[in-house]
Amino acid sequence: MAKDILYLKIAKAITEQIHSETLQFGDRLPSLRSAQKLYNVSLNTIKLAYMELESRSLVESRPKYGYFVSQTSQRKLALPSIAKIKESEIEKNPQDLIDKVFGTISNPDLTQFALGIPGKSFLPLAKLKKSIINVIKNKNDSGTNYEPVQGSEQLRREMAKWALVLEGKITEDDLVITSGAMNAIYNCLMAVTKPGDSVAVESPVYFGILQAIQLLGLKAVEIPTHPISGIDLDALKKALPKLSACCFVTNFNNPLGFQMPDENKKELVRLITEYNVPLIEDDLYGNLYFGAERPKPCKFYDEAGLVMWVGSVSKSLAPGYRVGWVAPGQFKERIIRQKLVQTVCSPSLYSDVIADFLEHGRYDHHLRMFRKKLYANYLQIQKSVTEYFPDNTKISEPKGGFMLWLELDKRICTEDLYDEALSKKINFAPGRMFSQYNQYQNCMRLNYALEWTDRVESDLEKLGKMIKNRI
Amino acid sequence: MAKDILYLKIAKAITEQIHSETLQFGDRLPSLRSAQKLYNVSLNTIKLAYMELESRSLVESRPKYGYFVSQTSQRKLALPSIAKIKESEIEKNPQDLIDKVFGTISNPDLTQFALGIPGKSFLPLAKLKKSIINVIKNKNDSGTNYEPVQGSEQLRREMAKWALVLEGKITEDDLVITSGAMNAIYNCLMAVTKPGDSVAVESPVYFGILQAIQLLGLKAVEIPTHPISGIDLDALKKALPKLSACCFVTNFNNPLGFQMPDENKKELVRLITEYNVPLIEDDLYGNLYFGAERPKPCKFYDEAGLVMWVGSVSKSLAPGYRVGWVAPGQFKERIIRQKLVQTVCSPSLYSDVIADFLEHGRYDHHLRMFRKKLYANYLQIQKSVTEYFPDNTKISEPKGGFMLWLELDKRICTEDLYDEALSKKINFAPGRMFSQYNQYQNCMRLNYALEWTDRVESDLEKLGKMIKNRI
């Protein structure tokens, strides 16, 4: 039997197993060597069969871990729909709701699906403590000296070395250290806009970005956003002539979870370059990928210095340290000036600790573990939502990060649901937080970077029941 | 002989010693007990004599240390003059000059008269290090948790307890922690102004305040300022109807060093209340007093909640920690919102260290030593300037803090002098940095919070010679 027919036969057999749910989403296929024995064929034939399955999106390869039945192979719930944003829509500031939700996120009694930061069990707390103690012991000035305004040179150097994804396109000289990613975004907005200007954002949009835009007297222009490919580039193109800036979360978007495809990123950079509009690219989830490799940011395709590439360790290592950065391209001097006036400089100790973590490979080591845990949790929450929530629930397909976006039955108001859930000690982020218009009332965002306990599982079941009771 | 004649005779004898320079500025008078034996009179008579001298400003009492010959008793150099600010004056942004001076302040080879922070030998570095290690050892979260946006409750509680000068008028609830005093000022400006608004400042004005005002698109209104009593209240009154805010350094002003008298503070608060104009009161030097007690801030007299009282530990304990605070009165919610959007929260470790320092009395202990050293240095620099600089040099009379303001002969351009001084490894802050107009070209600010070595002394001599050569 010819090899090419053999591998197709094996692929067909596995496809049937997937369709009959003998193999389910998240299951690992037998290793190449086991499968070789199982089907009694050459290693190459098995490889061809698995690649065939991968090309049909039935399985995903995860380097070093093997092949897994993919989500798309068995998706039972639909993707969230794309919002049609009408400019005529009445603005309804979500501030009251944001305040309400934020008021509960430090309550330790709640299951914190609303949080935007990973749970403690995901962070290398002991190693961080050790690093802080080592760093402070070696600091002659006990951390009292001012750092350069641009930020610790050591940290910037380590950051630049570590940002392999940019393939050497940035050096320490191109980076400015900030007080977390939000501070970088705030400074970028200050640098390239003046009150009254318009800034394009995704829709749904991370509410922190919306708050910054509104606080600075700017106008947010919500662009329709696809749950898999991100911002609608045609809609953006129409808006570009009147924009002063764009602000997008391109990788593992908050809240939608998408990874903007490379071709879209290239086209986005081409468009902003054509219209000479700066792009603030919030890439703070970029290292939390489920796939084979860290996705490229738009910054990689930027020749004109228009992309201001923002990152931080808040989502991946140490939220409270407030260490972020920006590679602001042609706007570097404005950002440094803004930082000087706003805070003089960053506290040096945390910069040194993060630099230490990067230098000794501890951050990479941590991220490898963290990504595995996040992916496992994603599979968990995906399964639980599919099981407990109504069948007409629409669910995002995050390619990384730790946010799940759900679109529920039209009759559900997640703001009302929030109160009921809270009374049962369950927290989530209601959809209306993610728009300046009265939108996404039937949506919610769930954080899944929490220790997966029986309580978490049963709380999702409770939440599903509450929703079913409301239909 | 009647007591009242006796004490006057003793006062007269001492006055003559002062005038003949047997007793010189800064010298300590004999203790009450020694003087009692010396003059063979009752303790009470000596007390009366010393109080008489004090009432004539010939001596100053410093509780627990005794009586000292005062500066005014023997002042040889005149006070700086009050600038006449013409609105018609052409604006000349001092940014280029500020950048130039800032570019050299981390150069360890220079004698740093330009710096706005105390030298390392003035800070309790070992105790700070110990405190950091203790704090981090006890933190279960290794500092990764977010703090409340308003700031660490423990720090705010300790701050409120420690702010005795306000006599219990503020609680932890009234304070917001910021990233240093400049960050507090920036947030206060953001909270109460919009671009195009006018903000009153002193003249000469601390350049950081000027930079913040300009960066936010505001207009700085420079008000003539007296080197002893501060802002000219009549001039301010005329400007008030068109102001959106005032921003003053009321205690140990930077650069003039004055302590605004209590009656002026009361009147200032009365005026801003009448016109309903918020006052940002930058009181970050307030604890570095040379006199008997910590002066009251305007905040003490504020009933309407219009005074936003700003402080920090940057000038007195740990510049690089970036810990400041503001008691923003009626603008608290706006400040908290601004902070949330700008940085989410402060890093917790430094808050805990400062709280620890306050709680265990270490800050008080440090301040007592620090004030003594600063006062000694002030006497030193005052003497050296009097000795080495031309006789027509005008010199400020700081009542605390560590900044000296000099007004030189009209023919001197301190910007040119700066280059010559720098070539001899001496640094200072040229006067033009302290105005948006082309003013104070013959002025300079000297920092005297540096270890008083022979080199410092000889550098002042060199500086004096350079000036003399230019007349």
TrEMBL record, chains A, B:
Domain HTH gntR-type: 4-72
Keywords: DNA-binding, Pyridoxal phosphate, Transcription, Transcription regulation
Pfam family, one: GntR
Gene Ontology molecular functions: DNA binding; DNA-binding transcription factor activity; pyridoxal phosphate binding
Chain ranges passing through the membrane: none
InterPro entries, A to Z: Aminotransferase_I/II_large, HTH_trans_reg/aminotransferase, PyrdxlP-dep_Trfase, PyrdxlP-dep_Trfase_major, PyrdxlP-dep_Trfase_small, Tscrpt_reg_HTH_GntR, WH-like_DNA-bd_sf, WH_DNA-bd_sf
Family: In the C-terminal section; belongs to the class-I pyridoxal-phosphate-dependent aminotransferase family.
Protein name as it appears in the record: GntR family transcriptional regulator
